[in-house]
Write a structure and sequence with these properties.
Radius of gyration: 18 Å
Bound molecules: adenosine-3'-5'-diphosphate
Protein name: Sulfotransferase
Number of strands: 6
Shape: globular
Number of domains: 1
CATH superfamily: P-loop containing nucleotide triphosphate hydrolases
Helix content: 40-55%
CATH architecture: 3-Layer(aba) Sandwich
Family: Belongs to the sulfotransferase 1 family.
Number of helices: 16
Keywords: Cytoplasm, Transferase
Order of helices and strands: EEHHEHHHHEHEHHHEHHHHHH
CATH class: Alpha Beta
Largest sheet: 4 strands, parallel
EC number: 2.8.2.-
Strand content: 5-15%
GO molecular function: aryl sulfotransferase activity
Length: 294
């Protein structure tokens, strides 16, 4: 049975993309959103390291000043463009109150991004994560973040994920859509797995993209502060401050494992093959890239 306040409701559909009904209600304001030229957009499919990248960006914007980055929770420091729930400010309202230069978070597929981001030629950083880890992370996130419908069993959830019947639709369409746009626009396209492997190199890529230089000690502080261990215990980064009715950390922490798994053992999958065939086969560039043996 559906409940009030957006808790465990069925998803609606926004231009064919499954999405929370409360977000769809706020769509006219999102569509009309006026980006500013110095806005920086952080775009991801859910569970792909959005919060990690957001914390890195806030640290870069504050020259590695840890205290300044503890000023508020990450979801207030980097407002979530299309977010709208019945209580509290919407993402749009938050952004209106945020002084420039703003960091903006979105999970929208590229075709739904409000046009003003393109018109104002805003810088955009996209981060992709391999679908196996995204699926596992998304399953546990469905359990703890009650805005999502009940995920059902692990097997049921995986079926829905592979069919794109989850919030924000198909993972593959999302990463591919933004990848194609990257060929034409000012988009830095990063991979979660690269960030895990060599965060210093990835932070340098970001700095170059921003045209910014930081001293080595500052970069060091950014890397330390945004490590998994540090973020996991940082209430300004780990979503602990969210209302428990919205996120129940006793069911699963927000920062769960933060790993790169090659099999989805957590979803009961036994081998790479059994999961990779339906999600990615060998035609999807992510899998070819991450699993070169394909
Ligand atoms: P897991 O659920 O696999 O642990 P998002 O912010 O897009 O919702 O993504 C959340 C995922 O990013 C979670 O994955 C979380 O642990 C991971 N994550 C967050 N901060 C991280 C960090 N500093 N290092 C590695 N992974 C991180």
């Amino acid at each position: 049975m559906e409940q009030e306040d957006g808790i465990r409701q069925e998803l609606g559909s926004l231009h064919g993309i499954p999405l929370f009904k409360s977000f769809i209600e706020g769509w006219p304001q999102v569509k009309a959103f006026q980006a500013r030229p110095d806005d920086l957009l952080i775009s991801t499919y859910p569970k792909s390291g959005t919060t990690w990248l957001s914390e890195i960006m806030d640290m870069i914007y504050h020259d590695g000043n840890v205290e300044k980055c503890r000023r508020d929770a990450i979801y207030n420091r980097v407002p979530f463009l299309e977010m709208k729930v019945s209580k509290g400010l919407s993402g749009i309202e938050q952004l209106e109150k945020t002084p420039s230069p703003r960091l903006v978070k979105t999970h929208l597929p590229v075709q739904l991004l409000p046009t003003s981001f393109w018109e104002k030629d805003c810088k955009i950083i996209y981060m992709a994560r391999n679908p196996k880890d995204v699926a596992v992370s998304y399953y546990f996130f469905h359990q703890m973040a009650k805005i999502h419908p009940d995920p059902g069993t692990k097997a049921e959830f995986l079926e829905n994920f592979m069919a794109g019947k989850v919030a924000y639709g198909s993972w593959y369409d999302h990463v591919r859509g933004w990848w194609e746009e990257k060929q034409k626009k000012k988009i830095l396209y990063l991979f979660y797995e690269d960030m895990k492997k060599d965060p210093r190199r990835e932070v340098q890529k970001i700095l170059q993209f921003l045209g910014k230089e930081l001293e080595e000690g500052t970069v060091e502080r950014i890397l330390h502060h945004t490590s998994f261990q540090e973020m996991k215990k940082n209430p300004a980064a780990n979503y602990e401050t969210m209302l428990p009715t919205l996120m129940d950390h006793s069911l699963s922490p927000f920062l769960r494992k933060g790993g790169v798994r090659l099999v989805v053992e957590d979803l009961g999958g036994t081998s790479l093959d059994c999961i990779s065939a339906p999600i990615c086969g060998c035609k999807y560039f992510m899998c070819v890239r991450i699993y070169p043996s394909y």
